[in-house]
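Sample entry (587 residues):
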Amino acid sequence: MFTGKDILEVATRHLGEKYVYGCECPLGNPAWTGPWDCAEFVSWCAYQAYKIVFGAKPEGLHKANAYSGYWASDAREKNAVIALADACGIPGAILVRIPRSDAVHRDGHVAISLGTGEAVEARGTRFGVGIFPVAGRPWSMGVLLPGVTYEPPKAILGLTDAATPCFELDSPYQRGPAIRTIQAALAANGIHPGAMDGVFGPMLHAAVLAFQAARGLTPDGIVGSETAQALGISWPIPLLADDLWSAASPPTTPARPDEPGPEDVRPANADPAQDNAVTFTFEFASGRHYATASTGMRLCLGSPQHHVDDMPRLGLAQKPAHLAHLAIAGVYDPKDFDASHPGWSAFLHPTILAESGGYFGRINSYDRAGFTFGCPQFAAHTPGANLILLFRRLLTLPTARSYFPDLSLETDGQGEPRVHCLDQHGRMQNLETASQVLRPNGRTELQLLDFMRYLNANPVEVDQAELLALARLILWCVEDDEARRAQVDLAVTTSQKKLAAAAKKIPDLEGKPWQEACMVFDILHQGRGRYADIAAALEEHDPLEALSRVSIGPLPVQRIKTVRAVMDAITQQGVLNDWSPWDDIFG
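Predicted structure, serialized as tokens:
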């Protein structure tokens, strides 16, 4: 007969082991000793103790992905939910913090009750696996696993603290001066919280998650006493001394990015001959997002894609089937650009096919860049490079107002043209202000947060901003030859700059055959190798083969096969026989 204490015997053998946010473990491996994520730890302990798969999908021992949302849904489906107060007094009962949306947000928590007001849990990188009090922390439900015999619940004193109000992403959004204090504290700790508006919206939720992960706290996106203390603010949270807002009368705030509002119905595209723009309607069907322009064209924007890098994220990804309807005008052909970029149009072809399959409208909005677009895949997060440079070029086109009527090029304080957005107050906001960001992995970097937010307001769900931005960009590239040309022009300029910089650092790179230069550019464009790695490869007997093996992380085998195959085809066709990239770069 299984008892509640069986899972505790398993769990307590792993005290002190390492926690890694978002990691996975094989449920069927009894020798596993970490690293652990909270839900993975409890699901693994449940399988080892009772040989049942709970809180993990699909229900295979080696591929199952445990998640707090699955714990909540399994508990409801199997009538395993009990009162939280009872679960705190039952040895072996499970405590669950439910994510705000089981299908999207991955910021819940799972622990195993000791029945004493404490729980065994994989809590955070600062804590690892340990025993911690449950009071003063937000929980949603208790769970009793089917087929297990449990002791009657004991009354646990002091658990009323578990209901202490916390600050979190909710519907409707929480508002007030205390939230502005949280935003100011995050900014002081190097994490951009979004607008300092006193509203706990998706941007602030993502910022709290990033801070918690970076500090090794339980990554639940909730500001309670523990997170407040780590932020350097007291609990309950005091108001800022200069805060003139009234908590009883919060200010009017912009519409939520996932609700209809003026921003969502702003014209997205129009006949370039007209000064006005047409609108989009959006729909979600069969796992795909679609947009239909009032000009009649229907676009497949892609499917939701979960991703974990320095934090769990959700955005859009596209497969070739999503883009098949763009095959006529939307696919890169080197011959279309050979007159304006002789040699370079073919030179770029291997990398462009590896990056996007050649589609001008290719999107990725699920990783830390926030939004990556185009056949060379220009990322939004880098100041003074990539996607922001493409927007500078696009906004000089006569058709720009038809596709992005709220954007324009305005001079900054140094008299330089920069991408600006017309905000809801009628002011022009510079989207190119770089912000120092502390990422959840503890690294800091400069990012274009305002530009990223304009394109993708919420990194943990597919929001209206990214749907609208993508629909506008795809349609622009399909309908306007110059929009496609802007991508290629920037790709050529970027490749020349990267190769010129590399030639200054790598001995004898200048003058190498175009094939070796092409592989070097692909390495630099993807960021999979350092100058020293490239230099060492060029010294080997077969430099091209050695360059094909350069990779900081796992070798991207399929990408390299694609690059090499296209290079071989170009070589066989003799297209670049008498051409050298170095003549244009240093000639």
